[in-house]
Amino acid sequence: MHLLVDSRKEQPEIYNLPEMWINVTLGDILILEYGKSLPKNSRQDGKYPIFGSNGIIGYHNNFLVEGPVIIVGRKGSVGSVHFSNENCWPIDTTYFVKPTDSLNFKFIFFLLESLNLFQLDKSTTIPGLNRDNIYEQVIGLPPLNEQNRIVLKLEEVLSSLDKSKEQLENSLNQLNFYKQSILKQAFEGKLTEEWRKNKNDLKTPQQIINEINVCQDEQYKKELIDFNTGKTKLKPRKPKKITISSEAKALAKIKLPNEWLYIQLKDACHAVERVSSKERKNEDTFIYLDIGSINNNKNIIETYKEYQWKDAPSRAQYIIKLDDILFSTVRTYLKNIAMIEEEKFNHQIASSGFTVIRVLDNFIKPKYIFKYIVSDSFVQPLNELQSGSSYPAVRNSDVFDQFIPICSIEEQNVISEELDRQFSIINHFENTIEKHLLTIESLKQSVLRKAFEGKLSEQDSNDEPASILLERIKAEKEQYLVREKEKKNNSIKIIIMPEELKSILEILNENAEPISSKQLWLSSDKKDDIEEFYAELKKYIESGEIIELPRNGKESFLKLADKS
After folding, report:
1. Once rounded to an integer, what is the mean pLDDT over residues 458-484?
2. φ/ψ (deg, to 5) at 502
3. pTM more than 0.70
């Protein structure tokens, strides 16, 4: 029994409700309880679903709460509402609600769906939903018999809408699958196979390698002059000559056309400058792009923020330019990837939560490489390298170590144009489907609104008034509080000492042996913010205070530099 009633002198009159209804707040009738953490390394495969904010994220051999249960997204996909008839485990990014005899539980589920709780998110960084803000929402409470009638009517009307929605979402998934299939063909050289047959002057891989090395040398000399004359603050690194033999690892994966080769992404990129703290003038305003700026369905920049430096987040670090590619290093499977194509973003600032990719456009076209980076061929290997349970992420070096397929500039242009042509057709279908989905959602919200304003079902004057129902809820709440108090009194009390979190340098200083990056993160005072952890770690590696050892499988190991 999970109910709460506050005594109030008068209820706020928000809706013009039917006679037997009463206005209450959600806090008057519900308790949202916190889910419990269940790290991946503690999960054992079983029959009980694990719920995160987005829905089922896995299965476990044990459960936290008996079904039926309603799960509400608390972090991440805030305000999303899920229903489970079976026993399950809601994790700590969720709230959950248990049923009560005085309320139709499906009525509560539909009610929460109708409230668009995501609108209550007031956070500026990681999306979050405050329980008190949910409790403040005023709703119309009907008699229990009318709740039952409303649920029957909603299940009848919404079932057809849900079926149509499912069919449209399946169509979107099929279009995405087709899009990935086209990308795979493009970057295996199959899309331009006929085009190559009609070309007699295509460059060999060795010629392409030679051009890359020449381009790298010329770019290095230019950047060195700019650095020495004070035009730039970032001292360039002398490029390492690349050879065809360095492609052997990637060549073993997919056989490319004879005129193509693989190179590592880092061999095709400029260094990207970070803004200096000395150059940050408090009153200066800039455009800021973070992960929330990206529409990851269309891979475009959809929104942005403006800050003065005095109010800027600590992650506002990268100076971005036109044709840069932003690749989110957190939850790479979400594909928060976009390209800087609008002049207003030129020389603005991006979050350090991105890897900023700036290609050497003398021999590789930014649009060509952007299309490869959004493909599964590039993203999937990075998904497997992610570490961290709360905020799984990769490092910049993981991104730049990936192999990319390279062909002549001429063929890159042909591929980009053909992909643009085919994707424009797919995008047309996607836009049409998305419009239909919006229509369905609008219809659903309209039906729900009528239901909870008392306009969907007939009232019955013989029903017990909701005011009496509220009194019964109050009695049940008191019984629940007694039971919970007894449970606490009878339980064995375990005193848990607070965990002492230490800085990165303190942890490494106390460990004689190298420590894995994952273990270091989870033990550090940055364990709740993976982006801040990696930002600080990069600083120490670049300054030479910390040494990164060669990878052992998927793990990298770190130790303090020897100062002796």
Report:
1. 84
2. -120, 165
3. no
